[in-house]
Amino acid sequence: MTKDVRKIKTERDIQQAMLRLLTTKTFRQITVADICQLSLTSRSTFYAHYLDKYDLLDKMVAYYSTIFNEKVHDRFNQMIDGEIDALVRGLLADMADNRDAIRILFTVHEPEADLEATFHRLLLKEWQQFIKSEAPTMTAPADLIAAMGTNVQMTVIEWALQHGETSIDVVADAVNTIRKAVLLQIKPTMKNK
Amino acid sequence: MTKDVRKIKTERDIQQAMLRLLTTKTFRQITVADICQLSLTSRSTFYAHYLDKYDLLDKMVAYYSTIFNEKVHDRFNQMIDGEIDALVRGLLADMADNRDAIRILFTVHEPEADLEATFHRLLLKEWQQFIKSEAPTMTAPADLIAAMGTNVQMTVIEWALQHGETSIDVVADAVNTIRKAVLLQIKPTMKNK
DNA sequence: ACTAAGATGTTCGAAAACCAACGCACTGTT
DNA sequence: AACAGTGCGTTGGTTTTCGAACATCTTAGT
Predict the structure, then answer these.
(1) Structure letter (DSSP) for residue A83
(2) How far is the CA of A30 from the C1' of D23 (A)?
(3) How many angstroms separate the CA of residue B9 from the nearest CA in chain A?
(4) Which keywords does UniProt give here (chains A, B) (predicted)?
(5) What distances in angstroms separate CA B162 from CA A16, B130, B159, one per listed residue?
(6) Cα(A108)–Cα(A26) distance, rounded to whole angstroms?
């Protein structure tokens, strides 16, 4: 039931080729022939794995989205406490291996496949759920605050993807101030923390 | 007549695996199973390409030796002039792609396969030929001077392999002084240069 | 409107790689 | 001496990949 090693290898090669090509060309400009040439796979093999280059992109985005979703869901509860976001720091640690891939895919914005947008959506959903359970009634509109929290975190994530995780320390104070301000809208009792 | 892409890929994978393993273990400690596991190739495929791990090492050494030999032979005549060794600088430029591989293989010293020793031997042969044609009669023993020249160059090569090519500039003066002293033994007429 | 070039997606026989299994040799227990 | 453990090298049937060919489809040039 487990996959043949050859399948794993060709999919790895094809996806690596796609990522490398994306550093040079636009997704639209990339041809299936380009991918095959760089990955040393034959045309027919490519189509044995993917319907077309859109399907390929789709599966890549789906893969990283799944990982992200799992990690977010696991860690979301730890978010409130801790300096900067324990969540964000944890996520970046979890995805250290895939950082290059994610950074590259973040530059691709196709209607069918958009990793950045997907991450944003997943994060927003968790925020909404979080607010609903923690503070059912709020003075400020819940959706607004959820959007705020999401955007703050996304900003940190993207910044760390570009500049490296360690660089988080540089902006920790600034981000913390903002984070606390957002959380204050949800849990006013946290003032004295 | 040209090789199937699949052969190229598996040989590439196997050789990369060998190099990566050599950064961790001794050549003796490495097993065929290790290589197969890391390169994602099956045991039977390995033996379809190589007799055993010694044969693999052998072919890798042979490959880089061939390249080295060609480059040395092409460039040896340009050696005398130019600051530091035009030869050495040229060689390092030619082999920039393979620098990591060569640096790793230089740490392996098996009686049947020793890249460092092979490079040394090839270089020495060129020096002997050079002296024979340029200065058939010399006061100092030709073999001694050939050995000197070879060792000076090998030292620079190994130093550059470790520290990067640009770092040659740092030691250029020192090496040049020595190089000139060696060449003076061959061509006393160069005093005034 | 015609053509040439390049890209897509499919088909099929041949070549290569996989994998599970086997026998063998060597080493270190108990 | 029997034993398990590990590494070597080989075998044969199965699966995957390759390569070359083919029929579209789009796009640019004359």
Answers:
(1) T
(2) 23
(3) 8
(4) DNA-binding
(5) 29, 28, 5
(6) 8
Strand D at less than 7 A from CB of A43: yes
Question: In Å, how far are A23, A25, A69, B96 from A30, measured between CA atoms?
Answer: 11, 6, 28, 29
Chain B residues within an 8 Å CB radius of A40: 5, 8-9
Q: Which residues of B touch A5 (CB under 8 A)?
A: 40-42
Neighbours of A147 (CB within 10 A): 15
Buried b (16+ CB within 10 A) or exposed e, B4-33: eeeeebbbebbbebbbebbeeeebeebeee
B22-31 mean pLDDT: 97
Rounded Cα gap, residues B178 and B176, in angstroms: 5
| Stretch A128-154: mean pLDDT | 90
pLDDT tens digits, residue range B40-95? 999 999 999 999 999 999 999 999 999 999 999 888 876 666 677 788 888 999 99
For an interface test with A, which of B40, B44, B46 has the most A Cβ atoms less than 10 Å from its Cβ? B40
Query: For position A79, what pLDDT does the model report?
Result: 62
B7 touches chain A (CB under 8 A): no
Identify nearest nucleotide to residue B45 by CA to C1′ distance: C17
The pTM of the full predicted model, rounded to 2 decimals, is: 0.88
Q: Examine the pLDDT at B192 and tell me if it is beyond 70.
A: no
Residues of A in contact with B42 (CB under 8 A): 5
Give the chain B residue nearest A39 (alpha carbons).
Answer: B9
- pLDDT tens per residue across span A44-80: 999 999 999 999 999 999 999 999 999 998 888 766 6
Counting every residue written for chain B, the total comes to 193
Quick check: B40 CB within 7 A of strand D?
A: no
User: Tens of pLDDT along B132-155?
Assistant: 888 888 888 899 999 999 999 999
The residues, any chain, with a CB within 8 Å of residue A102's CB and separated by 6 or more, are: A64, A95, A115, A161
Q: In angstroms, rounded to a whole number, what is the distance separating the alpha carbons of residues B58 and B27?
A: 12
Q: Is B5 on the interface with A (CB under 8 A)?
A: yes
Amino acid at A11: E
The mean per-residue pLDDT over the stretch A104-129 comes to 95
